Each structure stands twice: as C-alpha cells, then as structure tokens.
Amino acid sequence: MEYETPLFFHVMEYADRADRDVIDMVSGNPDWEPPEALRDGLREYADLEPDRFEYPPSDGLRELREEIAARRGVDAEQVIVTNGTGEANYLAMARALERGRGDEIILTDPVYPYYPGKTTMLGGTQRFVETDEDGQLDPAVVREAASEETGAIVVNTPNNPTGAVYPEETMEALVDVAEANDAILVSDEVYDHFDLSGTFSSALRYESDHCIVTNGFSKSMASTGLRVGYAVFPEHLIENARSRHMLVNVATTRPGQYAALRSLRETNPAYHEANRELLRDRIAAFTDALDAAGAEYTTPEGSFYVMARFEGFDGSLENVERLIDEAGVAGMPGEAFGDSRGDWFRFALVTPQVTEAASRLAAFFE
C-alpha cells in the first residue's frame, strides 16, 4: 500500500528554498506565547527526581486524565492521553473501523487532509459530503450518505480549513445519524478555544455511546511541539483503544503531560480571550486587504484560517509556488483539501506579518 504525503511538507520545503523572504501561512503553528504556567511546568520538571524521567502510565498521567475528565464531564477511565490530537484521531478512527460494522468513513469536503490519509492507512473507504459555501455541514446530507457500510463520521469543529463552527442543532443531528446507523461520530475539537462565534457545541454534551471526541493542547496552549493530546471514548470502546495506543506509541511525553497539567490548572481564561482578540484583529486586517485585491473569501467563525479565491487564478500547487516566488507569501492550495475548493487557497493567520502578507497579495493581484 502506498501513502500520499500531505502537500504541507512540499509547500514548506519549497518556501524554505525560495530566493526571497517568504511569509509562512502554511501550517497552524500559533506564533504567540504559550501560557507562562506551561513554561514554569517544564522548568520545574527538569529538577524532579530521576524516576520522573521513566515511562509514564501508557494511557497518561492519572492527574492529567482526571483534570481532563473533570473539565469534559466524563470519567477519567474514558480518557487516553495521546501523542497529540493526530494520534487521538488515529485511535478513534481505528476503533470505529475495527468493530466490523462497516469500512466506510464519511468525511467532509473540504477536509483536513490527514483524515483521508488515516482512512487509507487503516484500510477504510473514503466517502465525501460537501459543506456549503460557508463551510457549514447539513446533517441531512450526511444522513443520506450514511448506510450499513458506514463505520465512522469524522467532523472537525471549529473547522480547518473553512473556519466554520457547527452549532448545537448540527452536532445533535450528527449524533442521531451515527446512532441510527450504528456508526461512530469522531468529533475533532482541537480548535475549541478559538470559537469566535459563541456557537461551538461539543459532541460530549450528548452522552452518546456512538461518539468519540478528540482534542489536545497544541493549539490552545500554542505548543504544537509539546505533542500532548487526548481522546474521550465511550466505555465499551476504550479497552482496544488503550492496547493500540500502547502498541503504537507506548506512551506520550511525561514532561509534556506534566507541563500541560500545570497549565490547565493555572492559566487564567483571560489568556485564551486575548488570543481570540488577536485573531479577530488579524482576520479583519487580512480580509480588508483581500477586499482590496478583489478576492472572495471566508470569514472564520472559529480556528485561524481564511480561504480565499482570486479570479482567474486557481488554487493549484503551481500557483501556490508562484505566490511564494512572486509575492513572498506561502499558503496552501485548495486542492489539498478536496475537490470542492480546488480554486481556493488557505492561509493560516499565525504570523505577526498578517498585514504585510495581505498587502503583498493585494499588490500581486492589482
């Protein structure tokens, strides 16, 4: 079996080789400060006893699992601490497929490219349902696509790449679709702290045994290198997920878990609100310049991505490379996220040079 390498790596390498300065708007790596408590936790950990540098419990430090469980309203035994949200999604999708219910995974179009990649790796079959022009997902479309072959329905809210936030009625209906088809709804909620709309609704509120929720601290704590995520499983699905996690990763970083726990306990909500305000300012600056460039664009309700379309300039990899070479701005081609946004580009607003990037794009397209 051959796996397709996501285009992220190609674009980043191309930008690195460019003969000019390039503003990186490719990947969702927050450029702002992590919580001070996270730094304090890592410093403190360096001076702990030698036994703290041994393997942690495979499913995560007990104190961290209990803290997550208390915040999410679940039992700590339902929580597995993973090697980032990426592994959490892998475990969730694997657990959904290995039930033998069906090998089809319903994905949205546009889609975060790692979901279809994981589907292929796990031996599943991809089935795509399109979102509307704002990135919202119509549960009726999912209901029509679901069948006895459906093993899982994978959604991401707030969404990458569209910035859509699925409201309560959407999430409730998706839970109903999963239950009606004996499928598993996998809800990736890693951008939950970046809900700018006030309409975010976690799948956990429905207490369904057909839901797995994944999350992590890469985005909310501005620490993509920390590699601490988690998945919340229904009780009847947890055991095999623990075994797969142990066989694939043994455990995730003990110092990272320690620091994440301290940050959870000590970081004031004002930290997250300040980051949301920063994003609101960046969205306004970037979209104002896109207006000047005559572009069509999405205004994110959550996460930190803007998709843009420029007349007569499709969102191909070739044109991404042109923007790098001629405008000095690196984004992602829309074709990387599925068929429905092939003439769009996706830009991550995680650089202090957002205004400069927008000006460069406006100048390029004037």
UniProtKB/TrEMBL annotation:
It holds the Pfam family Aminotran_1_2. CDD domains: AAT_like (cd00609). Residues 21-356 form the Aminotransferase class I/classII large domain. Belongs to the class-I pyridoxal-phosphate-dependent aminotransferase family. Homodimer. InterPro entries: Aminotransferase_I/II_large, AspAT/PAT-like, PyrdxlP-dep_Trfase, PyrdxlP-dep_Trfase_major. SUPFAM superfamilies: PLP-dependent transferases. PANTHER family: AMINOTRANSFERASE, ASPARTATE AMINOTRANSFERASE. Its cofactor is pyridoxal 5'-phosphate. It comes from the Archaea. Coiled coil: none annotated. GO terms for molecular function: pyridoxal phosphate binding; transaminase activity. The keyword Transferase applies. This is Aspartate aminotransferase. One of its GO terms (biological process) is amino acid metabolic process. Keywords: Aminotransferase, Pyridoxal phosphate, Transferase.
